[in-house]
Design brief:
Length: 229
């Protein structure tokens, strides 16, 4: 005959087992549905997932480089230094298309940044070709995004507005679009998915580093934001 102590313990054990069974049943259904969902994905679905994942990583790196200046402390401190400058003074002659490019050609500063402005926007044109159907939509998104980046720099004080950057970014995006349009490959989405899969693992460490580094400099960004306000 079980003792008085054994009876409560048995009751607690039975309750615990019942609770475990109920919990397992609660999680089993969502996990089963998730597994079924993965199994039902077609090859095209997986291609789309890979392409969108890499595009999101690319967008984050684009924001990090253009609007956050790759967390360059020197650039951020310079931004704090001229935060109180009038808008006209901050603009200078950079609102004139190709003015800064001409100055670079003359030797006033490095032309490398202008070349990079073309290169970093090449993937934008390539991915928009996969997402949008009409050329005017692709060109519109390319130009709207680069104008937005420049306006953010102008009004945030991080970096500066440059009409030349808009032109060169736009050129880079259109070159990317032209490149994938003219490549004689029938299944461009499949090839893009394979390239994106490799690119994802190549650029993911940089994207993670950019995120961690941005969090580490968050106080500097807060100081700049409040100073502008």
């Amino acid at each position: 005959m079980p003792s008085d102590i054994e009876q409560p313990i048995s009751a607690v054990t039975a309750e615990a087992l019942l609770c475990i069974q109920q919990t397992r049943g609660t999680f089993q259904k969502p996990i089963k549905r998730l597994a079924e969902g993965f199994r039902s994905l077609t090859k095209k679905d997986w291609q789309n997932i890979v392409i969108w994942a890499v595009f999101c990583v690319y967008l984050w790196l684009l924001i990090w480089v253009i609007t956050l200046k790759a967390n360059s402390v020197a650039v951020l401190q310079d931004s704090l230094a001229y935060k109180n400058w009038p808008l006209a003074k901050r603009l200078g002659k950079s609102y004139i298309p190709f003015y800064t490019l001409i100055q670079a050609i003359k030797g006033d500063h490095s032309i490398v940044d202008h070349i990079l402005n073309i290169i970093i926007y090449l993937p934008m044109g390539i991915y928009l070709f996969l997402f949008l159907k009409k050329p005017w939509q692709i060109v519109s998104v390319i130009m709207a995004s680069t104008v937005l980046f420049e306006l953010i720099q102008l009004f945030s004080g991080v970096g500066g507005f440059d009409a030349t950057d808009i032109c060169l970014n736009g050129l880079g995006g259109m070159l990317g679009y032209a490149l994938i349009s003219w490549i004689p490959i029938s299944d461009k989405r499949s090839v893009s998915a394979k390239v994106s899969f490799v690119a994802f693992f190549l650029f993911l460490p940089l994207a993670v580093y950019a995120l961690v580094n941005t969090v580490e400099h968050i106080e500097l960004y807060k100081g700049l934001f409040y100073a502008i306000l």
